[in-house]
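Methods — Computational structure assignment.
A single polypeptide chain was analysed. Its primary sequence is given first, followed by the predicted tertiary structure written as structure tokens.
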Amino acid sequence: MGDHVREGMVRPAYEQPGSEIQPFHIAIPQAALDDLRDRLRRTRWPSEVAGAGWERGVPRAYLQELVTYWATTYDWRAAEEELNRYPQFTTEIDGACIHFLHIRSPEPGALPLILNHGWPSSFVEYLDVIGPLTDPRGHGIDPVDAFHLVIPSMPNFGFSGPTADGGWNPDRIAKAYVELMRRLGYERYGTQGGDYGAFVAPAMAYADPDHVVGVHVNAATFGFIPWGQPSEEDVAAATAVEKARLARLQNYYTQGSGYAQIQGTRPQTLAYALNDSPVGQLAWIVDKFKEWTHPSTELPEHAISRDRMLTNATIYWLTGTGASSAHLYYESNRWQPSLASGPLATPLGVAAFAEDIAIRRYGEQMYNIVHWSDFDRGGHFAALEAPDLFAGDVRTFFRGLRNASRSSM
């Protein structure tokens, strides 16, 4: 983490010794915020092709306006106060610091559930579903559907900070999270994840099948899409919804996967730009918030509040993890996934939102799919874009698994 941030954090991540779980409180020094605003004001803006719009990436006029808002109107201190309302902790596992939120439900029969974010997201993605999931009674929902929530910052992301070594692929992250749930005393629990979290959540079930009662995913790709070009038979058999998803997948391969190629092959080369320029970091993130939200043809703040998007980006900047988080793609390109060991027996549920590309027939080859929902709104960052649909689907999926879990808790 950067020096300014390091000086002002309560119990900085990399100073956590051993396996003790320590309270954590976000306290960013004013010098770090002043430095951010100074860098924003001194941005050297690039040229652009007239009239290109979003075709070649984030347009200069849009980003200039967003950066002006970031520098003059966005209030990190208000965001920091909101984040600190939730109990936060750190613990060292496998040589890495793990930062996490841990929110216990007031309901005694609540099911423990770990929520796993992906890139370029953070634990901020889940803020709007914490209340409905942990305190359903207070939100007019049946209290039988309550959860105790654990929401980690992935290693190399956010307040978990950069790791000291490589090799942090989804399986290693999953094993660290299994240990985290053990340390918290949870004998039986569910896992949920989107984007790379949809890699980690099933991997936790592979690593801990006796304790994971079910896996719920959104923004799922690995195991839910064809390898290479789909066959003519598959295309012919596809429903209208599936054909639209295959078309989005093809567009991703041809127009939208450049970031993954760079992060998967040269993350360190990219790191210098992400770690030195907050505007470069913001553009790298905003490009995906625009492309992956619903509707993807509109501005990202039409789907997600501007302040939420900037809180997410500011965490990447202040913790210096824009660079380290990119290495997840490099590690994953060299990863032998758990799926290689055979199909997953643990019950799995899928929420496919309007911008997702998951197709059931492919998923059924490797997963024990017992629940599938298709939604006509919401996108990649579902808990931010459609928290009502997200929380409702999580409740529905795990409702049928609770009796089995309670008998073993």
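Note: The beta strands are 22-24, 88-93, 96-103, 111-116, 147-153, 189-194, 212-218, 344-352, 367-374.
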